[in-house]
Amino acid sequence: MMDDHQFRTAMSKFATGVTVIAAEHDGHIHGMTANAFMSVSLDPKLILISIGHHAKMRKMIESSGTFSVNVLSREQKDTSMLFAGQKQATHPYSFNTFANLPIVQESLVSLACTVHNTHREGDHTLFVGNVYNLLINDHAEPLTFYNGHYKNLQFEGV
């Protein structure tokens, strides 16, 4: 019989990138590390994020109707840990602003999104975001997560 621990272990065997989701509502900005992120459609340009029902971020996105997805570089492990609650901040985090949304500076990619659709599934809410603007940084490598640990990809020549 499969239990929660076995399922979590199995899912950790899928290497993912690391993102910070950010949203602002009534002047309050909140960020959250997430690796449950994927591209959904090119036309229209849609992405999907998965947020736990009890997470503060879910309420922020539902209230604001907007959010950013920030794909982290390997130099941003500390930022990931901060927004995952694994590291304490020594001073308040300073978000940049792009397309009227808070973003993580120096990210590989920052996507500005409006909520296109919402689905409640199990213990998470799936937000389908309509990407209306983006920034790309071609001068860094991705931060990855595998088997419960941060990893750096080793790129080999073709």
TrEMBL record:
Pfam families: Flavin_Reduct (PF01613). Residues 11-152 form the Flavin reductase like domain. Keywords: Oxidoreductase. InterPro entries: Flavin_Rdtase-like_dom (IPR002563), NADH-dep_flavin_reductase (IPR050268), Split_barrel_FMN-bd (IPR012349). This is Flavin reductase (DIM6/NTAB) family NADH-FMN oxidoreductase RutF. It comes from the Bacteria. PANTHER family: FLAVIN REDUCTASE, FMN REDUCTASE (NADH) RUTF. Signal peptide: none annotated.
